[in-house]
Amino acid sequence: LSNLTVDANGQSQGTYGGYDGITIADNAHLNLNTVTLSNSGQKGLSVSGNSEAHLRDTTVSGNGDGSDWSDAINVSQNSQISLRNSTIASPKGNGLHLSYWSKADVSNSSIVSADPGDGSRPYAISLWRSRLSLNHDSNENSNTITLTAPGHAIWAGGESEVSVNQALTLSTTVVSQINIEEGSALYLNDPRSAYTVGKVLAEVESEVRVRENARVTLTEVHLSKGSQLRLEGSTPTWDVTTITCWNQTTTSGQSIARPN
User: Which of 124, 126, 122, 183 is nearest to 158 (CA)?
Assistant: First the structure.
């Protein structure tokens, strides 16, 4: 689909309420180029059942009716999505939600979750048993990935993986901008330019690995319940200001591996 606007789709209340702007499932493929999905009854886009969606120069905004929780984009059940030069905005719900062995590749895009004012604090990106790559696009002169949310910019659980290969701009209401837990991993790789992350929280056997050329400043890293921080390189470009290890039990499983 190209040069198209899908507006107010699924706002009428059927038997099960409103409907998503676009839904694909069961090995389906979708390409959106310069498309706007706006004011959908529920999610702006739903991808499930081993399906793929590729968005370029596309906007997804205004999903849901404003009263019930509704993610802007939901990707589940071994499905994939890529976002290029796109804008995702959710009035009440996560911007991008991945679950059950799904994958996302994001470059030069903005994902914003608004504060619904009810204390729910949605995330810009949430993952459960899934993988997220935040990448540099060599075909673009400008590469900016902006994540804004009242909750965490990124939350990952259930042995998920997050790879950061591009500088990020993060804005959150909560202190922890990135939260990984339940055996998940955060890899901070070469982003080509410097950036700062306010606070990273790793819980329950999770790992934060900072590569030698990461060019990142981590203002705070908190480790708990067997989580690890691994700092690589003999001449690193990273900076970690504060590290806190804590545990609710008498057994300390935290570890910090420093470069030789």
Answer: 183
pTM of the model as a whole: 0.93
Q: Give me 62's structure tokens.
A: 């205004």
C-alpha span between 258 and 234 (Å, rounded): 9
Contacts 24+ apart (CB under 8 A), 143-146: 143/107, 143/108, 143/167, 143/192, 144/108, 144/110, 144/169, 145/106, 145/107, 145/108, 145/109, 145/110, 145/169, 146/109, 146/110, 146/111, 146/112, 146/170, 146/171
Of 94, 207, 214, 195, the residue nearest 154 (C-alpha) = 94
Q: Six-digit token pair at 164?
A: 């950061």
215 contacts 195 by C-beta, under 8 angstroms: yes
Compute the distance between CA of residue 59 and CA of residue 110 in angstroms, rounded to an integer. 10
Which token pair is 207?
Answer: 């790992």
Per-residue pLDDT of the chain (260 residues; tens, 9 = 90+): 999 999 988 766 554 557 899 999 999 999 999 999 999 889 999 999 999 999 999 999 998 866 788 999 999 999 999 999 999 999 999 999 999 999 999 999 999 999 988 888 999 999 999 999 999 998 887 789 999 999 999 999 999 999 999 999 999 998 899 999 999 999 999 988 999 999 999 999 999 999 999 999 999 999 999 999 999 998 999 999 999 987 654 445 666 766 54
